[in-house]
Amino acid sequence: MGVMSELWKGLRVTGRIGLRSLFGRGIVTTEYPHEFRTKPQRFHGRHVLNRYPDGMEKCIGCELCAGACPAQCIFVRGADNPPDDPTSPGERFGFVYEINMLRCIFCGLCVEACPTEAITMTHLFEMSVTSREDAIYTKNELLMRPDGSVPHPRPDDPYADMSELEVADGWLRATAPAGSAAYEGVTMWQGTPGPASWDPEPDQETRDA
């Protein structure tokens, strides 16, 4: 009797939910892929290697991101900049840069470790592939183009949301240096040639209002 009573309670609950959904009340799902959820500012999506506003690469090949990665999914090899045609402002640049997305846990520690703000994370999370090799993103897929756009892994997808790649600054912009209130509202980083906004994130009261 006790089992039947509990079963009846469960059926009543699911029945009420089903009727509400049937008549358009209490629907919590979206019409994916025609509709996309608005992601929070600090969303951790796929990575992007940034450029300075003048087009030079920010990565200096220091390998600190690879050392900080707990999943050991980043492989970096630096090379000396040619004096007559430097790739980055420093003495070295990231000659090889690879991220194995099958191992990445999207923790953002690589972003925190980078001294030049070369690597940030976008809002893109749809990265389905048909082979393991395609899941290893090389510098060709990661590096921002000189005009600020970022290569999409599936540009031919009719539902590809290119705007998710424009938010390449979210993690960084939401991070205040040492958490000090003295830096509130102060831009502490270099922008990129892309469309992303690098203005400081507003305080919580302003944002909520």
Report on this model:
The chain is α+β, with helices and mostly antiparallel strands. The protein has a single domain (43-195), classed as Alpha-Beta Plaits (2-Layer Sandwich). The chain contains 6 helices and 5 strands, in the order αβαββαββααα. The chain has helices at residues 2-22, 64-68, 109-113, 139-142, 170-173, 204-208; strands at residues 47-49, 74-80, 92-100, 119-121, 136-137. A 3-stranded antiparallel sheet has the order 2-3-5. A two-stranded antiparallel sheet has the order 1-4. The longest helix is centred in the N-terminal third of the chain and has 21 residues, at 2-22. The model has no long low-confidence stretch (mean pLDDT 83).
What is this structure, in a nutshell?
By secondary structure, this protein is an alpha+beta fold. The chain contains six helices and five strands; from the N terminus they run αβαββαββααα.
What name is given to the CATH topology?
Alpha-Beta Plaits
In terms of DSSP E residues, the strand content is: 5-15%
Round the mean pLDDT to the nearest integer and report it. 83
Number of domains as seen in the coordinates? 1
The helix/strand class is: alpha+beta
How far apart the termini lie comes to 53 Å
List unreliable stretches of 5+ residues: none
Number of strands: 5
Strand order of the largest sheet: 2-3-5
* Estimated radius of gyration: 22 Å
Order of helices and strands: HEHEEHEEHHH
C-alpha geometry: elongated
